């Protein structure tokens, strides 16, 4: 089911003003923009360090878990029926701008889990 949800993800051609480019490996579950790449992977495993008490950032209805905690570069959309990981190189700070742009596609395609589940 995760793969089916991820294949339905309609991502923007531009993120943070950067054009979409080929991602490696070539897969309907990955996408990249710019160089260094803002990279998206859909259907990743639950982050190993994610706990019920983990600090999340909510941006436009999407809960994001950032890693490493002190200077997040990788953000995972959690509390959804598929985990979506976005890596934002420091060059593109604030990372929240990128997450704002990707949020609507995730919200439209990947249903939320029942309340309280991450």
Report on the architecture of this protein.
This protein is of the alpha+beta class and 118 residues long. It has one domain. The chain is 18% helix and 31% strand. The protein has two helices and eight strands; from the N terminus they run H-E-E-E-E-E-E-E-E-H. An eight-stranded antiparallel β-sheet has the order 1-2-3-4-8-7-6-5. A hairpin with a 2-residue loop joins strand 5 and strand 6 (62-67). The chain starts with a helix and ends in a 9-residue tail after the last helix.
Briefly characterize the structure.
Helix content is 18%, strand content 31%. It is α+β, with helices and mostly antiparallel strands and 118 residues long. The chain has one domain (2-109).
Percent of residues in beta strands?
25-35%
User: How many angstroms does the end-to-end distance come to?
Assistant: 17 Å
Into how many domains do the coordinates divide? 1
Question: What Rg, in angstroms, do the CA atoms define?
Answer: 13 Å
Secondary-structure element series: HEEEEEEEEH
Widest beta sheet: strand line-up: 1-2-3-4-8-7-6-5
Mean pLDDT: 94
Shape: globular
Task: Please describe the structure with a list of short key phrases separated by commas or semicolons.
8 strands, 118 residues, alpha+beta, single chain
